[in-house]
Each structure stands twice: as C-alpha cells, then as structure tokens.
Amino acid sequence: MYDLHLSAEQHEIRDTVREFVTNEIKPVAIKPARMESLDRRPPADILLKAAQMGLRTLALSEPLGGAGADGITACIVAEELAAGDPDVAAVLVETSALSHVLFDQLMSPAQRERFLPAFIKDDAAQLALAAHEPDSDTELGVNYHRAVPVAPATNCAATRTPTGDWIINGTKSFVPNAPLATLFAVQVRTDPKAPAGQGISTLLVARDTAGMTVRELDQNAGWYHGLRGDVTFKDTRVPADQLLGDEGSSPLAAGLEALGRGLPLVQAMNIGIGRAAYEAAVDYARIRVQGARRIIEHQAIGTLLAEIAIRIELARTMVWKAAWAADHPAAVAERSVTDLPLQTIARVYTAEAMHQAALDAAEVFGAMGVMRDMPMHKYVQDALIFLHSGMSPGDGKLRIAEAIAEFRRD
C-alpha cells in the first residue's frame, strides 16, 4: 500500500543532507558575485564533500559500495540538494542514477570488476551517458497519435576491426556530466542498414581513451543545470569486451527512462527550487514591516504564500507517488495505481507549478525580487530552466493524452 510515512533512516538522510546544504552549499550558491555573473559551475570542493557523504553513489546497491536507496529516498535527496543549488544536484543525481543502471543492472561481472573499483575509490569521478536520442519529443505536436518513425542519428558510429575491437567516429553533443566524467556509456550506431531506432549499441569508454576529447559548454549558452559538454571521437579504439549488452541491441536504446529506473528525479529537483524560493519569501515576509504590521500578516501576502505552499505540497505528493510506483511495478500491473504515466504527470505539474511558485515568491520581495544579485532572481531563473528544458509541459500533456487514449509509442 502506498505509504507516506518515512522511515527513521529516511528522516536521518533528509536531515543530514539538509544540514550539508545549509552549511556548505547555500553560502556558496547565493553569493552575490556568483549570481551576478551567472557563474553556475558546481564547485569542485562541494561535489567532493557530497561524494564523501555517499551522495554520488546513493542509488548504487550496498554490496557494490553504495547506499542502495529506494526511489522516494533518492527523490528526497534530489530535492534537498536542489534547494541549495540545482547545478550541484544535477551532477550528483546523474551519477547516482547511472551508477545503479550501469553497475547494478547492465554491466557484465568482468566489466564491473574492471570499472567499479576505480569509480568507488575516486570521489571526484562522475559518470556520463552519451545517449542516442531521436529528436521525437520536440516534434510530438506533429506526430501526435501517429507512429511516425524517426530518422536515425548518424553523427556517431562505430565499426568493427578485424580483431573485434570498435572504432568510434563522430560527436555526441550536450552530454550531461561530460566535463567531469571518468567513464562514459556511449550509444553508437553499429549497423548503418538497420531501420530507424535499431542497430544501436552501447560502449563503455574511459575518459583517458586515446582519440576522445571533451569540450565543456558555456552554461550561459544553454538552458540546463549541471555541466554539459560535446564529446568528439576520432578513430577512438574501444576493446571488444567493453560492449554493454548485445551488439545492435543497446540496453539503453529504448530511451533515457532507463536512467534512474524511471524515477521522477528531475521533478524532485524542481521542487527544491520552489521550496527554496518559498522559504526565502516566508523569511522576508516575517521581518518586513509595512503599515505597522509584518507583511506576512497582510491578506494579500498571506494568500500568496498559501498558494505557493499548496503547489509545493501537491507537487511533492505527486513526485513521491510516481517514485513509489516506479519501485513497485506490480501495483500498476494489478491496477492498484493508475497506469497513466505518473512520471510525466509529475513532470508537467511540477514544471508549471514551481515556475509559478518562484514568480509568486518574487512578488513578496517587490522590486527586490528582480535584482540580479539577490537569491530570488536565481530561483526564478532556475525554475524557468526546468520549465523549458527536456520534455516541455506541452509535449508532456500530449503524451498523457495518448496514454488516456491507449495509444502506445513503443
């Protein structure tokens, strides 16, 4: 049965991460000089401290050296980290989710023996997925209720050598965590004659592999959190035994939902932004006096704060429900939980609700809410990035509509 009662361990994890965010992340994230220059690069020392707390390997199973966190716990940590800084959260959440998918689920024992010890030993090591992403979501309005095949990406391919090794050529653009990653899971086209969406293989490529270069992207040039980079391969040789799964049938080719077991981690980070804006507005409303009364006692401000609180509580409930359902697929199969795409529902609602929450919180500050060196400016910008990055609310609603009509894109 779906239960919102957190365990003692979950309470302890939440409180520990919240204290870390308060003491270590927020003082750096909201420095006026950092916000004024829009320098959002996650500080290396903070990422290192977070890794030493086990946040980098939160989802990795305990036998392999992680914490083995379930879906709700992972979402709790994502929210807490993002309440401090979503760029720090994005790096850690990406690596944590990938560590579980790669090491726990997809790697062979030999691959795990080769790559896991170095990953566990190096607290600065991050993971990256250079994915094969057909650009279908941006065209969903055109393809709504139509099974239109997507042209295969041809910008990165791999060919076999006579010895069985792979030679990769091409570029993967906009790869999350690329500037920090020490291990990449690279999806490449290995069968140029295969139909669209097929003939895709995944290769494990270490950062120091000859022929691979990474160019970090300027954060001001794109709408995203964390760090991203373009990864270029020029006659990059990868041993045959670093193929993940079967040739031409990538275990991740079906899409990025495999990352994080379909958990609403991005949505949880979005809640962290809304909560940070809300808490800042409440603190200010308690000390700002107007008309001989604290403005929190004014009906207009009180109503505004109440509306923000409602949005946050509803969003968190939806995210936790989606996380619980991801960990309990039998509940969906036996119709105890709706078979509508809960993760997409959570994404659409949180994107819109937290953007509005940040805007309303800025209203509490009046003119100060738009000043570039104030935290509220950062919160509004962060919420706007969540609104427009990845699957947009418009595309998400169309996917939900397709599910209602029982139209399947798989």
Biggest sheet, spatial arrangement of strands = 1-4-5-8
CATH C-level class of the largest domain? Mainly Alpha
Assign a percent range to the helix content: 40-55%
Structural class: alpha+beta
- Average pLDDT, all residues: 89
Unreliable spans: none
Quick one: how many beta strands?
10
Number of alpha- plus pi-helical segments: 13
- List SSEs in N-to-C order: HHHHHHEHEEEEEEEHEEHHHHH
Spatial separation of the terminal alpha carbons: 29 Å
Known CATH architecture of the largest domain: Up-down Bundle
CA-based shape: globular
Largest sheet: 4 strands, mixed
In total, the number of domains comes to 3
Quick overview of this protein structure:
The protein has helices at residues 8-29, 32-36, 44-52, 71-84, 86-106, 109-121, 140-143, 265-287, 299-327, 329-333, 342-364, 375-388, 393-404, and strands spanning 126-130, 156-160, 166-176, 181-189, 200-206, 212-216, 228-238, 243-244, 289-290, 293-294. By secondary structure, it is of the alpha+beta class. A hairpin with a 2-residue loop joins β9 and β10 (293-294).
Which key terms come to mind for this protein?
13 helices, Butyryl-Coa Dehydrogenase, subunit A, domain 1, 10 strands, 3 domains, alpha+beta, Butyryl-CoA Dehydrogenase, subunit A, domain 2, globular
Describe the model:
This protein is an alpha+beta fold and 410 residues long. Helix content is 47%, strand content 14%.
Helix and strand arrangement:
Blueprint: H1 8-29, H2 32-36, H3 44-52, H4 71-84, H5 86-106, H6 109-121, E1 126-130, H7 140-143, E2 156-160, E3 166-176, E4 181-189, E5 200-206, E6 212-216, E7 228-238, E8 243-244, H8 265-287, E9 289-290, E10 293-294, H9 299-327, H10 329-333, H11 342-364, H12 375-388, H13 393-404
Parallel strand pairs: 1-4
Antiparallel strand pairs: 2-3, 3-7, 4-5, 5-8, 6-7, 9-10
Helix pairs in contact: 1-4, 4-5, 4-8, 5-8, 8-9, 8-11, 8-12, 9-11, 11-12, 11-13
